Amino acid sequence: MQTWSLVSISVLLAVLVRWGVSLNSYSGAGNPPMFGDYEAQRHWQEVTYNLPLQQWYFNTSDNDLNYWGLDYPPLTAYHSWLCAYVANILNPDWVELHRSRGYESPAHKLFMRITVLVTDVLIYIPAVVLYCLYLTDGSAKRRVSILLSILLYPGLILIDYGHFQYNGVSLGFALWGVLALGLGWNSLGSLAFSLALNYKQMELYHALPFFCYLLGKCIKAGLIGRGFILLVKITATVLVTFGLCWLPFLPDPSQVLQVVRRIFPVARGLFEDKVANTWCSLNTVIKIRSILTSDSQLYLSLAFTLLAALPSSIKLLMKPTFWNFKLALVNTSLAFFLFSYQVHEKSILLAALPVCLLLNEFPLMCIWFLQASTFSMLPLFLKDGLLVPYTVAFLGFPFLTVYLLSALDDCSEDELKLGTCGKLFSFLPKMHLACIMKWKFYVSMALMAVLSVVSVAMDPPPHLPDLFPVLMSTTAFMHFLGVFLNFNIVQFMDPPRKKSRKKNN
Amino acid sequence: MAALAESWSWFTALAVGVSLFKCLFINAYHSTDFEVHRNWLAITYSLPLSRWYHENSSEWTLDYPPLFAWLERGLAQAARRWDGDMLRLDNLNYASPATVLFQRLSVVCTDLLFIYAARECCRCVRVQKAPQDVLSRPSFVLAVLLLWNFGLLIVDHIHFQYNGFLFGFLLLSVARHLQSRHLQGALLFAVLLNLKHIFLYVAPAYGIFLLRSYCFTLDRPDGSIRWSSFAPLRLLALGGIVVSIFALSFGPFVAMGQLSQVVSRLFPFRRGLCHAYWAPNAWALYSGADKALAALGVRLKLLQGAELPRAAMTGGLVQEVQHAVLPSVPPAATLLCTLPALVSIWCRRRGNRAFLRCLLLCALASFLFGWHVHEKAILLAVLPLSILAVESREDARIFLVLATTGHYSLFPLLFTPAEMIIKVCLMLMFTIYSFTALGNLHRSQGSLLRPMEVAYLLGLVAVAISCEFVFPLSPWRQKLPFLPLLVTSVYCALGVSYSFLRLYATLLRSDDKHKQL
């Protein structure tokens, strides 16, 4: 069958799955006084539409920053304004200043869900399609399988269309950046990534690899001559993009400062709630939050983050290939997630996107990670009443992707590219290593399934009320750490096998 | 044989995929049919057998045959553990989250029968040589066309019905006949008749075919009947099966003397010629012509506007109708139109696929000319036609026109704004797939559709856009609220009638070929 029909069917299926999830509840539904992220987005529409720009980030009588104050960069604010403009045409009650607080209705829910779908269809989905068609190796069937697998990644769907957020915009822009860099269009790539950064500051997780890749390319092209011109072009693009996005705020330095203060709140603690990162998991054995002062917590996390992220970035700087870039994206974003300050469980999506890009080369490892990432957000989904879509995703995603990508057939030592590490296991025949991998995968899936069922069906013992979230986050943490180590090893082993695969095509 | 020995993993993937996909629409809009089935759960659980067909405290009385009532009773036993409140008779329009979850999951689970039937049909597909690529195999295409059928997904899992379960019986029976296991096929069809009596429309096809091809074992050289080869044992076996199933189903009610009550519930003849929303059949064309002529007559001052029955057929409710200009159609005439197709399979032994073709013609004829037809009944023709479509080029052409038109005519069933995206995307998905896959299968002889057919289908797109998007924003919305339904039904009726005529032509032409041999 022709590629265009397979691609369009995959995209339509992806849209249908998204819309099916969006029929469910959202974060904070029917839950006064604070509600949830859904109300936050609606409130930002109200604020940006009714108040002048100078008041958006400030605490005024009309704008109470304690009630979901704006804490994303300006592009989010402009997007909210655009949505509010349309909302006002359809029904002014939705964005009326003060009076629309906590507004909930089926029509409004339909409107909000459509805004998410529109941005996805315009930004995220085309990026994925183009990436799979132009930057993925393999037959047309393989590419469409990868496309379908990426589009059906449940974590992003459940957060954007269930919990309610606009991660598709920032991740979409970041993906456009990766796409452009992969095709050799450096300025466009920097433009796209700058837009992503200006939409959500969490994209800083991806900033180091972008920076190192582009700098590495400039150095390689020679710092005197072409490389220098490239550097100037990229710097100019980034500065102009930032300038345009922040243009209304630039005349008044106090505005700029306030926005920065809002998007980087350093007054909070090392972590909130149960997150699948090192500090939260460490906290179960050693109570770091009580031992260290908040300042030393900050420095500790900074040190560890840099320590974890730098090796891969330096490797990328020295050898700026697209392959290294993708690996660095995974490694850096995972390093940030595992060791950074004030991480939310939704930040795993920033690591999931680069992992999706590696589905073609490491199907089993990536599917494993993506499944674990969805699992790690289960407490959030339970709070939002998204159990049914979660179950469908938990069962369907691994089944479908393992089948489409033949992930369990290819997990020999070669596939795993353990390289030197593999020589440690060379006393084991190849078959056994593949068997071990498969059984590890099955056991892990079973463990996650059991934990999911138990946390839904049973009540925790009274003296350990947080037992289940802690168990889930620790399990997820072990998975993430394992993947982090694996991909770091892969990046440093420099596998020759990729070239042989290209020969086979 | 190597292809057969290879695993059917792709089928499992399709089946698991579609089942999980259906679970995503648990919270979508559901029609009054949801309350109908909840009420039946309550009736069969709370009341003794003798009261099942007398109960009428709710407007949704039990009007399916007894075996379906027993199915509801079985489901009610499971429902008790989910939410006992749904089984209370007085709990009208009760739709707690647990109830919705239970009912939706019951449809998904009963669909397992449909999945099994689809697999049996895929096994029956005749293949010259199996291509290496899974996507190009006829059995794969058939599996997708059956499992991911737009009509079934919309009607069963959003609108809410148990058609998957019922069509599972039908397709399984067809598969058994195609595999020449006629007794099993007859048994399954007898059970089906006792689950939903609408399948009586295709019973003549079964009856004539089994009588001719199963009870008469040999033919004369020219293919016509050899009366001497009548096998009474076979007839007895068939009769025994049918009678015993009916006895199992209706027996208790006959014993209680309630047979007439049950029959009156199953066949209520007071309803109008067209259902609330016009099914795109010949009567839609007839009524449409009547309306048009009436409007023309008023315009030309031939008729008095005041004398015409006002909004008689377009009033969205089920009622008896009066035609304004053309004579009102008496009930008996509708039955006559179903007869011609049966004659051809009686005259000559035609093989199992001719039986399927005749079944299709009965189904389509009953849709076009039948009494009180609902537009969901088009699925009765679309699903079996899928089997023929992957084997023969001519049938693939008819399938594309019939399926696209029939599926589009189901659009008015989902009128809520949230479901608009679902129906449009799902329709696009199915249409793109059916066109490209069938075109791919039969690509050896050029393009599949004739220009006229392409033009008609493009016109369908125009109708769709104007009815769904342009009309709601136009000034006629208040004065003529049922205009989009009228236009949809009349336009689709053209497509359905065209497919019917083409199918008839195929049957008769192969009849001629047979004569020439």
Give me the Rg of chain A, rounded.
23 Å
Query: Secondary-structure element order of chain B, as H and E?
Result: HHHHHHHHHHHHHHHHHHHHH
With helices defined by DSSP (H or I, 4 residues minimum), what is the helix count of chain B? 21
Q: Helices and strands of chain A: which structural class?
A: mainly alpha
Percent of residues in helices of chain B comes to 55-70%
Helix and strand topology:
The complex is a heterodimer of chains A (505) and B (517).
Chain A: H1 3-22, H2 37-50, H3 74-90, H4 106-134, H5 140-151, H6 154-164, H7 167-182, H8 186-199, H9 207-220, H10 226-246, H11 253-263, H12 278-283, H13 288-291, H14 294-318, H15 322-339, H16 348-357, H17 363-376, H18 378-384, H19 387-405, H20 413-416, H21 420-424, H22 430-457, H23 467-493, H24 497-504
Helix pairs in contact in A: 1-4, 1-5, 1-6, 2-3, 4-5, 4-7, 5-19, 7-8, 8-10, 9-10, 9-14, 9-15, 14-15, 15-16, 15-23, 16-17, 17-19, 17-22, 17-23, 22-23
Chain B: H1 2-5, H2 9-23, H3 32-46, H4 66-79, H5 97-124, H6 138-147, H7 150-160, H8 163-178, H9 182-193, H10 203-214, H11 232-255, H12 259-266, H13 282-299, H14 332-336, H15 340-347, H16 352-369, H17 379-389, H18 393-409, H19 417-441, H20 451-470, H21 483-516
Helix pairs in contact in B: 2-5, 2-6, 3-4, 5-6, 5-8, 8-9, 9-10, 9-11, 10-15, 10-16, 13-21, 16-17, 16-21, 17-18, 18-19, 18-20, 18-21, 20-21
Description:
Chain A contains 24 helices and no strands. Chain A has 505 residues and is mainly α. Chain A has a domain at 30-103. In chain A, helix 17 runs antiparallel to helix 23 (467-493). Chain B is an all-alpha fold and 517 residues long. Chain B starts with a helix and ends with a helix. Chain B has helices at 2-5, 9-23, 32-46, 66-79, 97-124, 138-147, 150-160, 163-178, 182-193, 203-214, 232-255, 259-266, 282-299, 332-336, 340-347, 352-369, 379-389, 393-409, 417-441, 451-470, 483-516. Chain B is globular, with a radius of gyration of 24 Å. In chain B, helix 3 crosses helix 4 (66-79), helix 9 (182-193) runs parallel beside helix 11 and helix 16 packs antiparallel against helix 17 (379-389). Helices cover 63% and strands 0% of the residues of chain B. The chains are: A mainly alpha (505), B mainly alpha (517). Chain A binds chain B through residues 1-2, 5, 8-9, 12-13, 15-17, 19-21, 23-24, 106-107, 110, 117, 141, 388-389, 391-392, 395-396, 399-400, 403-404, and chain B through 9, 13, 16-17, 20-21, 23-28, 101, 133, 135-136, 417-418, 421-422, 425-426, 428-429, 432-433, 436-437, 440.
